[in-house]
Amino acid sequence: MTSSTSSSDSVPPPWRKVWALALVLTMVVVGGWEWLMRDAGLGPEYADNRSLWTSTRHRLNQHGDDAIALLGASRLQYAVDVETMSEAFDRPVIQLAVEGTSALALLENLAVDPRFHGTVIYSVAPAFTLNSALPRIVAGKQREWVQHYLNQSRSRRMEQALRLYLQGKLAFRSPDAKLTRVIPAIAETGKLPDRDQKTTFASRVLHKDYSKVSAEVDELGMVQFYLENTVPYSQPEFDVVLNYMDTLVRMLRAKGVDIFVLQLPSSAEVYMLESVFFPRERFWAAMEQRLDATFIHADDYPEMAAFMSEDGSHIDSKYIVEFTKVLAGVLRDNSI
């Protein structure tokens, strides 16, 4: 006897409705999470990582003859408001400094790049420029980022541009909203975490909220960092570095690039330690004598020190616009 039913009589699953319901549920979950993150003030915000740096380095290529390229470590990122400096000189300013690193790798990259004919502002942070202990404090990070920039395919750039676009639009893509940060906070306190003390903008400018960290702890952290990670170059080591810098500066000058070597201010115990470890008459004077560049040392411009933060090493973010205007005036007086 044949069955009264057959496979041809079975009702196909309502896939359109299933997919529509799945899409609606996904949008509700994602939208709800986005609302929670925004309501908690956790974004949108950028991560100061190699993707953002690489994108910024590509942007420099669009303004090769006119751009002012900022090279250095975190002091320069906290000190310069890119928009304010761009307005001051009516030129594009590109922030390429990287926290906790030496900028020599990027200086080399600009020296050999035939597209770049702009201006270089090279910030000397003594602990990251004159220190033989650099490998201990991730000085190679900038070299790795330069290599990533050089090896990046067009498809990777497109993927990176999309990720950065979403990061700038969606709070749940913010570093502050990472599940690895949010879930432990909820488990421990029953509520979402506060916004991190550091904020990264699309221009790679950094701001720090010093109200979220004890002034004493902040300065102590910088002092401890110097004490644990500082081994000034011996004279033979410094001679090698100076020869390398001289070669790169000559290559840049041959392309018509103007170079400004800048030492930003420090204060309190950080200033004292820098004076002991990296005396101006030994290191700065040697660079000034050897390199074909314009030199600007904060000690010669005491008005810069009025904007220092509590950690003794960085400009207070509350005053970044005012400091940038002062710095722009100093640069202008030195014929930028």
What does this protein look like?
- It is a single chain.
- The protein is of the alpha/beta class and 336 residues long.
- It has a single domain, classed as 3-Layer(aba) Sandwich (Rossmann fold), CATH 3.40.50.
- The chain has 14 helices and 7 strands.
- It has a 5-stranded parallel beta sheet with strand order 2-1-3-6-7.
- Strand 4 and strand 5 (206-208) form a beta hairpin.
- Helix 10 packs parallel to helix 12 (268-277).
- The N and C termini lie far apart (98 Å).
Strand order of the largest sheet: 2-1-3-6-7
Q: What would CATH call the class? A: Alpha Beta
Assign the CATH architecture: 3-Layer(aba) Sandwich
CATH topology: Rossmann fold
The quaternary structure here is: single chain
Overall pLDDT: 89
Query: Roughly how many Å is the radius of gyration?
Result: 25 Å
Strand element count? 7
